[in-house]
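S.,

Sequence below, as promised.
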Amino acid sequence: MTVGTFILKNALRNKRRATLSVLSVAVSLFLLVTLLVALRELTLPPEDIGAALRVVVRNKVSLANPLPARQRAIIERIPGVEAVSPFTWFGGSFKNEELTTFAQFAMDPSKLRLLFSEFKMPDDQYEAFQKDMRACIIGKLTAEKYHLKIGDHIMLASTIYPVTLEFKIAGIYSGTIDDRNMLFHHKYFDEATGELGTVGMWWVKARSAEDMPRITAAINQTFANTSAEVRAETERAFQLSFISMWGNIKLLVGAICTVVVFTLVLVSASTMSMAIRERFRELAVLKALGFRRRELFAFILAESFALAIGGALLGAGGAYLLFTYGNISKMTNGIFITFEVTPKILGTAALVAAGLGIVASLAPALSVARTSVVTGLKTLD
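The prediction came back faster than expected:
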């Protein structure tokens, strides 16, 4: 018998316990990877190709405070600005859903392709959208989820404004990072809600990346000390600031991950201690045959390490395969559109598993080292 087979046989001596140990590690590391990926997606949202040239302008006081429509003409005159469009969140509920997974924004259709060059949609659909004030376009993911097609009529009841609007789907777009949203005419929104003269935000397109800092500074300075001061920032900065409104997501997820790892360490250490306690006589015999303490410790460490790595391969590997090749949008009901398991996250899971294998073996190894051969031989199996 080789050393490897000796360790393997000891690890699998109680197959039920070994299986449960591996599964507990696998489930815990699967949860850990899921939490880390979710945290990454929430704190580092994906960025569209054209986002580097877009500036978001919102009220400096609060995102809920509207901006006067007269600001548009002033922003358009700033050197380097290529296009400006209002962008107002409608907050509609579709089919009485408690959580509608696609956002709806009122905007200027004539500026759509200038602002969002990554939008892919046939020309005839885009023209139909521009001509019909009650038309809208929706993302491919939303169309697939609700089985919607061009020409369908949908009703949306706003949770912000006291109106329910009917829209005709004129086009279905794709090609963006988030192919879920719905866009419609701001004029239709103005007439239906009576919110004439105000908008939620401004979406601004710069001609070049070099113009971005100057445009951002010029917009902030232009409306400083007015009744509607603004905060202009890049689209990326706006995404991150919007996420920060949810609270300290990092602290919450970090606390949960800590609890998961701590619980896993306790369970694994208890399992290894139980397994070694049952073999005290065998380990005492090995001592009597001349095996040194460090060799016995190596056996215990290898057994613990093997169970931990087996769980890591099953848990972290399963998470990687599921999130990489599975339809994450369908699995999360449209809440997430991407769920990338990065090498860093896999490395973190592997380090946790390795640390778990080492920590779980310390207590039983010390117990074996302190037990004399005579005491060990007196122990009952």
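The mean pLDDT is 84.

Coffee later?
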